[in-house]
Design a protein that fits this description.
Oligomer: homodimer
Radius of gyration of chain A: 21 Å
Helix content of chain A: 25-40%
CATH topology of the largest domain in chain A: Aspartate Aminotransferase, domain 2
Largest interface: A-B, 65 and 65 residues
Strand order of the largest sheet of chain A: 2-10-9-8-5-3-4
Shape of chain A: globular
Number of strands of chain A: 14
CATH class of the largest domain in chain A: Alpha Beta
Structural class of chain A: alpha/beta
Order of helices and strands of chain A: HEHHEHEHEEEEEEEHHHEEHEEH
Strand content of chain A: 15-25%
CATH superfamily of the largest domain in chain A: Type I PLP-dependent aspartate aminotransferase-like (Major domain)
């Protein structure tokens, strides 16, 4: 028997990413028979009462977990965060208005590119010249800015806003890789969006949270499907929503709630991250790639001091069942994604591989 | 025990709709462990080799089943057919160009509304004044038309193009509810699109087939995610695609192929439709709602001559395990959707309910 195949797998993929085992069990059960209907969830109408209940629960769990009040609308759309890069300015930024952007990585840069199609896009901060190793801070936001766009966690580079800036301007924030991972002060945000496939569910659904007073300030013509108002009026069911991805996302939110909510997630995420960063900092073979104060609790990036050892270490990880450790192609090295659903035990397995590898190679 | 709950269910939902039993079994298995990876398909990277193989197979099966040659690109996107209502003219119709539309129902009308945002939208045919009971034929297409847009099957009203018009203009066709249900002459088409959730798979993925020479004729600025070229260049993986909906769609296409391809589907679909239409025509209680020559083989719409009996008949259907029979809210009466995956035996169950009901009520 091949031990690589039979060993328990530890899922460090950056996204689509690990989901809680109990969520996967319920998702599997629903593909056989959903809600006692005698039909699979894959073949039922989105207007059937059991699915309408799922959609409503997904909205209410989002509000409860993030502490949203009635100022906010919650939508479940498709197209990923990549579609919000243009839909946010299309819906929120007047042609003569200015949006400020902080360029903290690959995804910020893509958002900046799209914003320029709709209004003035003012890049007020950037760590691009430093290979995105840190999160810029203490920059000025000009008056009359419509919003400040941030990427809360940079999946590729492994940096994260530990604190969101204090400003009078509403934040529009891509939280694709750290939604539901910690408490946030919702009063700072005019809009939050995320692709599901890191901390919220499987690929195929996009969460959009928008404060109502951000809307209806543009006069451009917007195709029906791209207008947030369309989906608000129809409770995310103007057209057929992605039924199964929404269901699994709802199950994952239930799991977050049952496990203490986002505050409890933050405690566990901090423990897991410190376990791994401590090993990176104390192990003679490894080093982190980002500014220590901006280290992501979701995506831990590191390299080996001797790059020639990297393929050998990757093999050792694979042999131990650690999957998805290879760094993003644009950065190299390693990236361990340790989202909400990642058990501390799996992080310990990786840490043990690092320790063993040092014992054998130092 | 309640017989409604325990009886085998016959899924007549209009969409999301019935999927083949063997596809549901494989989908369920993959939510536990996909391709021997030791992980669920819901939590694996879209760049992992097993999923890249799925995406490639979905493209090649689409080409094989529909007889597409190298003139065509095949994309798996999101946003449903509703998003193609604006993406098609955005990508294909120059601002000074004219597209012709045939208005054959709810979805055609929505497509017409969006096309007008991008160029001249010329509605060359319509059955709106006749409550969309038939498919208009023998209309003129002006010279210099960029494309003629059709809805091949009208899910709400139960009509279907049995023949596509002969014209020198390329057809752009919404085939959401009859893709893979019959052979088509691909030479007539410049673009075909469909939401998956009727004949192709679960909700959450959209198939777009576009002939290359239709592209690059517009000079408007298109956001990156809305440009077909973006997704062509990246083989539908520019951003994270909807992994699971694509997987289940691929399984469904495999099932179509294993069961004889679209020609064999057409034979079975014709048999099922005739079985049901024969009962509607011969049963004294029922009548069809559309022109006989335009009757859909996918969505069979009918009413009762005595509308007061309709709720009683609906109860009889439910008691027999027939689900999703109630007509669309805009039409009333009944609609039995009998897509590829619907077994003839289930249609027979519905026919038997109709016969029994007539015996008891005439």
């Amino acid at each position: 028997m091949d031990t690589v195949i039979t060993k328990k797998k530890h899922n460090f993929f950056a996204g689509p990413a690990i989901l809680p085992a109990s969520v996967l069990e319920q998702a599997t059960a629903a593909t056989k028979d959903f809600a006692g209907m005698g039909l699979s969830i894959l073949e039922i109408s989105h207007r059937s009462a059991p699915f309408v209940a799922v959609l409503n629960e997904a909205v209410s769990l989002t509000k409860e977990l993030l502490g949203l009040d009635d100022r906010f609308e919650v939508l479940f759309l498709t197209g990923g965060a990549s579609s919000q890069f243009y839909m946010a300015p299309m819906n929120l930024l007047p042609s003569t208005g200015t949006a400020c952007y902080s360029d903290t990585g690959t995804w910020s840069a893509k958002a900046i590119k799209e914003a320029g199609l709709f209004g003035n896009c003012n890049v007020v901060a950037s760590s691009k010249e430093s290979s995105y190793k840190f999160i810029p801070k203490n920059y000025d936001i000009p008056k009359d800015t419509t919003y400040l766009h941030l990427t809360s966690n940079n999946t590729v580079f492994g940096t994260q806003h530990q604190v969101f800036p204090d400003t009078n301007v509403p934040l529009v924030c891509d939280m694709s890789s750290d939604i539901f991972s910690r408490p946030i002060d919702i009063n700072k945000f005019g809009m939050i969006y995320c692709g599901a496939q890191k901390n919220m569910g499987p690929a195929g659904v996009t969460l959009v949270i928008v404060r109502k007073d951000m809307l209806n300030k543009v006069d451009r013509t917007i195709p029906t499907m791209l207008d947030y108002n369309t989906h608000i009026k129809k409770d995310s069911a103007f057209n057929t929503p992605p039924v199964f991805p929404i269901y699994v996302s709802m199950l994952t939110m239930r799991w977050v709630k049952e496990n203490g909510g986002v505050a409890a997630m933050a405690v566990k995420n901090e423990e897991k991250a410190q376990l791994l960063y401590n090993e990176i900092d104390s192990n003679p073979l490894f080093e982190g790639t980002t500014a220590i104060e901006d280290r992501s609790r979701m995506n831990v990036t590191f390299v080996m001091k001797d790059p020639e050892l990297e393929p050998v270490f990757l093999e050792a990880c694979t042999a131990a069942g650690c999957m998805g450790i290879k760094g993003h192609r644009s950065v190299g090295g390693f990236r361990a994604s340790i989202y909400n659903a990642m058990p501390k035990e799996s992080v310990q397995v990786l840490v043990d591989v690092m320790k063993d590898f040092a014992n054998q190679n130092v």
